[in-house]
Design brief:
Order of helices and strands: HHHHHHHHH
Radius of gyration: 18 Å
Helix content: over 70%
Distance between the termini: 41 Å
Low-confidence stretches: none
Number of domains: 1
Number of helices: 9
Structural class: mainly alpha
Mean pLDDT: 78
Shape: globular
Number of strands: 0
Strand content: under 5%
Length: 205
């Protein structure tokens, strides 16, 4: 029994490390959160964060239930969904790249939960990560608990590290008031978002 418990703990630890590596690394959602935190602050980005989290839950449910695999068994539908996701994320990256420096905080329209939700659902990197984590790892738990435990760990990793990305962005807030630094940082965030989408597409091939 102790050996079995130890192997389960080791499997959970290995899975958690893999989840952090895949889900906490730079991606469209994490970079968008950092940009939002820098531009609007943590408090005003809360709804955006909640929306992204809800969207990621939907993405994870699609993967865990097998619907993600079913959808990708129809090439035309899978391609259409991928194109829609790419277009939305590229559009969001453009919005970030062209955002003006902060001048009047009260007049700035912050991204809401709807924008975050769509980003979470359209996050190609998240689907690739969830597919790898939920389909390739075994924790050694009872079948009835296995998938739920992995989903819970993934959700905790997403929430904790998304908050950290949001906080890290908020620490750069003063730079977004300066016109030159604001433009450079916005463009950098946008380029990184597009680059992570391109990288994520290679993972799904």
């Amino acid at each position: 029994m102790p050996d079995i418990a130890l192997s389960v703990y080791q499997a959970v630890f290995t899975f958690a490390v893999a989840a952090i590596a895949l889900l906490a690394s730079p991606g469209p959602a994490t970079l968008a959160l950092a940009a939002s935190g820098a531009a609007y602050g943590m408090r005003r980005s809360t709804r955006f964060f909640v929306g992204i989290t809800l969207g990621l839950v939907i993405a994870m449910a699609l993967v865990a239930s097998g619907l993600y695999v079913v959808l990708h068994s129809f090439p035309m539908l899978a391609t259409a969904l991928t194109v829609i996701s790419i277009v939305y994320i590229v559009w969001l990256a453009y919005q970030i790249a062209t955002a003006p420096p902060i001048r009047d905080e009260q007049s700035v329209i912050t991204p809401g939960w709807g924008a975050g939700f769509v980003l979470g659902v359209a996050n190609i990197k998240a689907y690739a990560a969830f597919a790898a984590l939920l389909g390739s790892f075994t924790l050694g738990a009872a079948p009835a608990w296995e998938q739920g435990a992995k989903a819970l760990i993934c959700l905790l990793v997403c929430v904790v590290f998304d908050v950290l990305w949001l906080f890290a962005g908020s620490r750069m807030r003063k730079l977004f008031i300066h016109p030159t630094w604001s433009r450079r940082l916005n463009v950098s965030f946008a380029i990184l978002m597009v680059a992570t989408v391109a990288w994520s597409i290679t993972l799904t091939q």
